[in-house]
Amino acid sequence: MAATLIPHCDTLIFDIGDVLYTWSPNTPTPISPQTLKSILSSPTWALYECGKLTEEECYERAASEHSTDATNVARAFEHARESLLPNTELLSFIERLKQESQGKLRVFAMSNISQPDFEALVAKKSVDWTIFDHVFTSAAAGMRKPDLCFYRYVSDRVGCNPATTAFIDDKAENVLSARSLGMHGLVYHQLEDARTTLRSLVGDPIQRGRCFLESQRGGHNSVTETGLVVEENFTQLLLLEATGDRQLVNLKGMSECGKMNFFHGKPLLTTAEFPYDLDTTSLAMTILQPDREVVDAVLEEMLEYRNEDGIILTYFDISRARMDPVVCVNVLTLFCSHNRGAELAPTRNWVFDVLKHKAYLDGTRYYKTPEAFLYFLTRLLLAAKSDDFASYIRPVLEDRLRERIGAPGDALSLAMRVIACARMGVKNTVDLQRLLSLQREDGSWGPGEMCKYGSSGINIGNFGLSTALAIQAIEMLD
To answer: Are residues 137 and 211 in the same domain?
Structure first.
């Protein structure tokens, strides 16, 4: 399935004007910018770009049509040529892409440009034109964009497959024509956006993501939305579960009693003394799998932390009687993995009610997104296969997942949604496509919002976790 979702382009076709070259906005000309623009969009100029008028004939016609002197038109375009500046950053990036592809990537230029104007560009020697496998001009072809015949002419000459070809132009109408022939089209606006998109089109997203994870080995710390680094165990455990690589994470071991604290180091933005919590501890026990004696002792202690409704609480501290359905799900996962889910019947019933009535849509006390609840719930079902709970909750969960397909979300939310859908057998290529488009130039996906502080609501995310889950999501649909 992923083969049709991930383009892996092997051919790039770039426009020249306002993409590879830019005009200086402060160039003085004998005629007004409005008149210059009008000439450039006139039928006369189109004939000139297709080689059907000489330079002199074009300037004389343009002068007559715009009530000016041909000498002024000639001088205006001479000044314009002199003001042209190469987009050196984009050109360098293209060269890097070719080098990194080890000969697999072909790059072409395709432009509406007259022969005299193109010769003037080449004479400037400001660009190493050898980075292009060929340059197609409207003057040489006798046709121009956005006419489909020009695109077909170029495609036939280079022998490219439209499905693996990307066309980059600053004009939407030109990109539309390319797309109508099956090419991937990119309307060029900003260099940074173009580089990100081109990386996604040319590179392997899984390989790029893994390279990012390796480059930050042991340093995938979480960050708050305000930019503070948070050394914590929870997302490190999830990163370990997603990758299976212990050396990739920065994880503090369990206490002698088997419990684990959310914070790896000194608590940040909260009380100086922060208690162990059932959420992180449950995650640690299902992932690290300590001795059964340790697990049993912790399970027995967890049963002491329930409210008057019999619902499991968040902390090993009765003075912090916090209740969160995602925490309940993770504790249930631990209990079910040891065939003790029935001991938390009230908690189990409440989790089902939260799902049934969509109480999670605005997030929970410690988790901002609906995807956190749904994602961890699919994880619970994997651990509760032999439990009756799994059989009656599954159809409702599948419906709720279908309802979320296409909903807004950051990279982490999309990755969790795709994974959750895949686990439940729900097809979700819509969100996978969106997820692929969010990969950054360095190979990572944005930090997302895995959890948050209960009191302040400050969100915590992690680039490494988002990237690892994005890779997992792509692989699950491969």
So the answer is: no
